[in-house]
């Protein structure tokens, strides 16, 4: 019967699919067993494999093999050297050039002579923005190529770049007046707003390129006041303004969740959601020694309770402004950096601390000629005069 024939065909097809599925499962199982045998034969440590890709905080990381014979790497100048890890690359700027190298073998990926009299660089993701402060030149680069270089109508005071390539920059127009501009990676103008009060000292943009903050300085009732204004892309007026009396600004920086750090010579605050201030250290409570940011743009900060103190505290402050890790330092550090760990440079050594636990993980000897130290993977890259070198 036709119906019986169709049923037999259906069953035969079903059995065929089941056999195919079982075959695939067996192949996968055999491959797994084969891999396990190979790893056992060659004594591969499963934990070591895991640790190669995941750090102590559960974040994806990487392990890098470094050809130390490729170092030291010579720089064109020892003036104004700024070394920053950009992902798994190393960016090096000085008064004549900006260079990106592969730290594993010191090979140059990208380099150019900028020719700027007063170069100031900012980084976000794979982008970096370079301005000639006080002049009219601005350029945007990626880690391996130039995106554009442009000239502005008025002198540039400050600038910052977002992860999507949006650049915010502020130009002086007349007297205390200034102008805030936002352009994208194709030079399209996204925003232009006049600033009519105070002297501009800093600007910041968040990772999305939509939230902006700028700081002005003015005298109010014979007191020096730094005012931070928050504004969003497309706004014509600030959303909020916050006064910090007797406070000298050192930096404005958005964390990746778009909360704003305000770091002064004598305090730290976080402006949440563009409209509310959380004072981690109130103005006048501390003296700032040095600071830097993690790969998530969260703050690591060293302070003392008075300017001549030899004993200092190192703290990790998350994007909400809460102190998550606190470490007592017996000596005053010269420099601090942070990736998955905190790297602290003293005059005679580099110490690696756990970001979340605060414990000492490694210590390396060095001399007082070292001016910066950055950890990439398991290696410590230092700047000494006109050289980039690796600590052993």
In short:
The protein has helices at residues 2-41, 46-53, and strands spanning 73-74, 82-86, 89-93, 97-102, 107-113, 119-124, 127-132, 137-142, 146-151, 156-161, 167-174, 177-183, 189-195, 199-205, 211-220, 223-232, 240-245, 249-254, 260-264, 267-272, 276-281, 287-293, 299-304, 312-317, 323-329, 335-338, 341-345, 349-354, 360-365, 370-376, 379-384, 387-391. The protein is mostly beta strands and 392 residues long. The termini are far apart.
Quickly list its features.
about 400 residues, mainly beta, four-stranded antiparallel sheet, 2 helices, about 10% helix, globular
State the total count of DSSP E strands.
Answer: 32
Number of contiguous helices: 2
> How would you characterize the largest beta sheet?
4 strands, antiparallel
- Give the overall pLDDT as a whole number: 88
Morphology call: globular
What integer value in Å does the Rg equal?
26 Å
Return the structural class: mainly beta
Q: What is the distance, rounded to the nearest whole angstrom, between the alpha carbons of the first and last residues? A: 83 Å
Strand order of the largest sheet: 1-32-31-30
Helix content: 10-25%
Beta content comes to: over 45%
Layout of strands and helices, then pairs:
Blueprint: H1 2-41, H2 46-53, E1 73-74, E2 82-86, E3 89-93, E4 97-102, E5 107-113, E6 119-124, E7 127-132, E8 137-142, E9 146-151, E10 156-161, E11 167-174, E12 177-183, E13 189-195, E14 199-205, E15 211-220, E16 223-232, E17 240-245, E18 249-254, E19 260-264, E20 267-272, E21 276-281, E22 287-293, E23 299-304, E24 312-317, E25 323-329, E26 335-338, E27 341-345, E28 349-354, E29 360-365, E30 370-376, E31 379-384, E32 387-391
Antiparallel strand pairs: 1-32, 2-3, 3-4, 4-5, 6-7, 7-8, 8-9, 10-11, 11-12, 12-13, 14-15, 15-16, 16-17, 18-19, 19-20, 20-21, 22-23, 23-24, 24-25, 26-27, 27-28, 28-29, 30-31, 31-32
